[in-house]
Amino acid sequence: MNRITKLFGIQYPVIQGGMIWCSGWELASAVSNAGGLGLIGSGSMNPDILREHIQKCRKATSKPFGVNIPLIFSHAEEFINIVVDEKVPVVFTSAGNPAKYTSHLKETGIKVVHVIANKKSAIKCQDSGVDAIVAEGFEAGGHNGREETTTMVLIPMITQAVDIPVIAAGGIATGKAMFAAMALGAEGVQIGSRFVATHESSAHKNFKDMVLQAGDGDTLLTLKSLIAVRLLKNNFFNRVFEKEKAGALPEEMLKILGEGRSKLGMFDGDTDEGELEIGQVSAIINEQKSASEVINEIINEFNDTKEILKNTGF
Amino acid sequence: MNRITKLFGIQYPVIQGGMIWCSGWELASAVSNAGGLGLIGSGSMNPDILREHIQKCRKATSKPFGVNIPLIFSHAEEFINIVVDEKVPVVFTSAGNPAKYTSHLKETGIKVVHVIANKKSAIKCQDSGVDAIVAEGFEAGGHNGREETTTMVLIPMITQAVDIPVIAAGGIATGKAMFAAMALGAEGVQIGSRFVATHESSAHKNFKDMVLQAGDGDTLLTLKSLIAVRLLKNNFFNRVFEKEKAGALPEEMLKILGEGRSKLGMFDGDTDEGELEIGQVSAIINEQKSASEVINEIINEFNDTKEILKNTGF
Question: Which of A183, A217, A302 sits opposite B176 (nearest CB)?
C-alpha cells in the first residue's frame, strides 16, 4: 500500500496510460481487473463513443478505472460533462491548464491527476488541487515536453518540488524500471508502450507487430516546430524529419502532417504513411501478451529486483 | 562488493567521468581517495600535460585511478603510449573503435572500459575484449548518441545484450539515482556533472556557478548536424540552435563553432560565448561540495533508499 494505491483503491500502483487509438474499454477493464488502473484514452473518441466505452468498461470490471482527457482537445468540455455524468472514479487530464476543471471534478468526488513534463507545471498542478501528478520523461511515446527532461532526471526533480504523489512515466515497461522509478521517488508508474502490445489493446495488428520488432534508436522525438511527438520511424517520419532538418516552417509542417495520420497508422494499420506514437522502451518489448500477464510479470520482477538489491551494500 | 568494485579494486562502484577542462589530477585523486574511481579527462590535454597529471595523481593517491581517452582525438595513440608507460591501472576509451587498442592495453595489465550509447556498439565492445562498458544515456552532458536513448531505457537494453558489467551514466548525481541504475541492471555508475561542481574540479568558477544555478530545461542536445552535444543554454548555444533550426549545413555550423569554444567556456569562464558541456541533472545540483562529501552523500543516500524500498511491497 502507498498513497497511489490508496488514492485509487487499487492493488498495484501501475497505471495503464490513456492512449489514442490503443486504449478503449477492453484494455482499460483488463488492466483494472488485474489490479492496476486502466484508463480509457478519450483523445481519439467522439462523445458518443466515449460514453459507450465508459459503460462497457463498467460492465467489464467492478474495479476502479479512469478516463484520460487531453484538455486542448475540441471535445474536452463535453468529455468532462460525460465523466461526471457517468460517475467515472478517476480522470487524468493532460495537455492543458490543470486549474480549468480540477475543482469541478473533485467536487463530484472524482480523483484528478494531471500529466506534466516540467517543474513549473508540476507546481501549478499542486496549486490547482490535483490529487497526483504524472511526470512524463522524454523517452515516452507520443506528445512530449519542450525541456526534453528524461525520467531519470524528471522524477527526483518533481518529487523534490511537490508534496502530492508523483507517478513516473516514460521508459517503464518492466518491474526493474518500476523499482527504479520508485527509487527515484515516484509512488506509481504509468505505462503506455508495453500495453499497446497486448491482446486487449485496440492498436492495429500491423502497428503492434512494428512495436514488437522495434529496436534501439527506432523512435525519435520529432515535429518540434508544432508539438513535439515521439514516433516510430517509417516513411512518414522520414519525410517529416528531413523537412524539419531543412528548416521548414510550422505551416509547411502542418501541411505534410495533414489530418487523420495517427488513426491511419495506429488504428487502420498503414505503418508506412501513418503516425505511429510509441516510446523508446518499445526497443525491449518483444512479445504480445495479455494485460494481466503484463501486470503479473511487472509485479513479480519488481519483487525479485527488491530481493536482489537487498544484498547490495557498500 | 560486485564485479565493478572487484575489477578496479575500489570501495564504491562510483566512477567520476573523465571530462574535458574539468577533471585533472586534483579531482581524480580526490575521488579515488574517497573510495570511488577518479578519471583524468585527457581530451583537453596535450601529451606533456597528461603525463604531468598522471604523475601528480599518483603522488596524491595510493588508490587506483584512470585516464579517459577519446579515440577520435589527434593525440590518441600518443596518449595510449603514455598510459602504458606510466602504468596507469585503468583506461576508459570513448568516441572511436574499442577494438583498436584494447588488446594492447590489456596485455600490459591495464583494465579497459569503453563508453557507448547503443546496443550495436556494446556488443562490439564485448567482442573486442573490454572489461566493462559505460552505457551513457541521452541526458548526459557533452557528446551523445544519435539514438537519443535515455538511461532508463539504455541500461536494461545493454545489460540484456552483453555479459560484461555495465556502468550507467547520464542523469546520475545522487544515491537514489545510483540505486535506480542498479535496479535497471547496472553494476556501477559514472557521474560527471555532480563532480564539475566540486572544489577539486578545474572548471572555471563562472561555469561552476552556472551549473549550480541551472534548472529544468536549461540544457539541450544540439549540434546534431556535426556531433551531437548537450550544452547549457547561453548566447553561443542560442546562436547555434537558431542556425540549426533554420536548416544550416554542417560546414556553416563548423564555422559558427570555431575553435577553442569549450576551453573558453569551461576553463576560461566566458559563460556567454563559450561551449558549456553539462548534463540535464545539473537541474538538481545546487551546492558546491568536496569530492569526498559528494561520494559520502551518494553512498549514504544509496543505503537509505535501499532501506526505504525494503518495506515497499505489493
Answer: A183
- pLDDT single digits (tens) B27-85: 999 999 999 999 999 999 999 999 999 999 999 999 999 999 999 988 999 999 999 99
Domains of chain B in start order, with CATH, are 3-202+282-305 (3.20.20.70), 205-281 (no CATH)
Angle at A283 between CA A279 and CA A285, to 5 degrees: 90
**Any CB–CB contact under 8 A between A37 and chain B?**
no
Q: 3-class DSSP state for residue A115?
A: strand
A10: closest chain B residue by CA: B314
Whether B225 has a pLDDT exceeding 90, the answer reads no
CA distance A99 to chain B (A): 22
Shortest CA distance from A283: residue in chain B:
B157
Q: Which residues sit opposite A112 in a β-bridge?
A: A91
The enclosing H or E element of B177 equals helix B175-183
Residue B36 has a CB neighbour count (10 Å cut-off) of 33
**C-alpha cell, A279:** 516510446
Name the minimum distance, in Å, from the CA of B65 to any CA of chain A: 19
B147 touches chain A (CB under 8 A): yes
How far is B245 from chain A, CA to nearest CA, in Å? 6
Q: Is the pTM of this model over 0.95?
A: yes
Return the SS3 of B9. Answer: coil
Enter the ipTM: 0.97
The answer to whether B70 contacts chain A (CB < 8 Å) is no
* Residues B168-207: tens digit of each pLDDT: 999 999 999 999 999 999 999 999 999 999 999 999 999 9
List the single residue in A176, A215, A309 with the smallest CB-CB distance to B156.
A176
Which of B265, B283, B287 has its CA nearest to residue B204? B265
Q: Do A157 and B216 touch (CB under 8 A)?
A: yes
Which residue of B lies nearest to A242 if distances are taken between CA atoms? B247
Compute the CA torsion angle B268, B269, B271, B276 (nearest 10 deg): 70
Say how far apart CA B229 and CA B141 lie, in whole Å: 7
Contacts of B309 in chain A (CB under 8 A): 179, 182-183, 306, 309
Burial of A300 (C-beta count, 10 Å sphere; 0-12/13-18/19+):
exposed
Chain A: residue whose CA lies nearest to B311? A306
Tell me the pLDDT tens digit for each residue of A202-239. 999 999 999 999 999 999 999 998 889 999 999 999 99
Q: Are B291 and B30 in contact (CB under 8 A)?
A: yes
Query: What would the DSSP string read from start to end of A144-181?
Result: --TT---HHHHHHHHHHH-SS-EEEESS--SHHHHHHH
For every residue of A205-262, DSSP letters joined together read HHHHHHHHH--TT-EEEE-TTSS-EEEE-SHHHHHHHHHHHTT--HHHHHHHH-SSHH
Judged by CB atoms closer than 8 Å, whether chains meet at A283 and B150 is answered as: no
Give residue B314's pLDDT. Answer: 85
Question: Contact B139/A153, CB-based, under 8 Å?
Answer: yes
